[in-house]
Design goal:
single chain; 5-stranded parallel sheet; about 10% strand
Length: about 190
């Protein structure tokens, strides 16, 4: 399984200054973005721009293109609105690609994107979609991120405490920050 991140997911790590941890995590767990996400982030100076382009080259995230005439291309054409053809293009391209490739799990934190994905990801084995909190938990649980403080930095940008999953506070409280696990002889 490969995690297919939308623009917002990558952006949260960049804004939190945790892009290095995302790149390291992508060494442990396969991660990708669709080419339209790359274009969005390269063109957005506040969330990406030239620093993003430089980071992406060494990030371990693969960039997937949607082939013209492919099932993903057909789905993307249908998802694009004539009224706003470029709005949320990266998100819609990610959904289209995930809908045609059951090896991908689409990761987003966009409410509209979630609803579109829930509608579109119907094929057996292809109904993989994750929000930001479950994605962050998987990164830590699978050893792709070792410092729980990384999770705090990213989730604080994305989700107000009252909007976090019911399991988040208890799970996070059970985790020690990196370097906090000391034995009695070290103190």
């Amino acid at each position: 399984m490969t995690y297919l991140l939308d623009t917002m997911m990558v952006s949260f790590f960049l804004q939190a200054g945790r892009e290095g941890e995302l790149a390291s995590a992508a060494k442990c767990l396969p991660m990708a973005i669709v080419d339209e996400v790359r274009i969005e982030l390269e063109g957005d100076r506040s969330r990406g721009g030239a620093p993003f382009r430089k980071w992406l080259a060494s990030s371990n995230l693969s960039v997937r293109a949607i082939e013209v005439g492919s099932p993903a291309s057909v789905t993307l054409t249908q998802l694009r609105s004539a009224a706003v053809p470029s709005k949320n293009l990266g998100e819609r391209a990610s959904i289209a690609l995930a809908a045609s490739d059951p090896s991908l799990t689409f990761v987003t934190h966009d409410k509209g994107g979630m609803w579109i994905a829930l509608r579109e990801l119907w094929a057996p084995g292809g109904e993989h979609i994750l929000g930001i909190a479950p994605f962050l938990r998987r990164l830590l649980d699978q050893g792709a991120v070792g410092d729980p403080d990384v999770l705090d930095d990213v989730i604080d940008l994305a989700v107000a405490p009252a909007q976090r999953p019911t399991w988040w506070a208890a799970w996070r409280a059970g985790l020690l920050p990196q370097g906090a696990a000391k034995t009695e002889t070290e103190e």
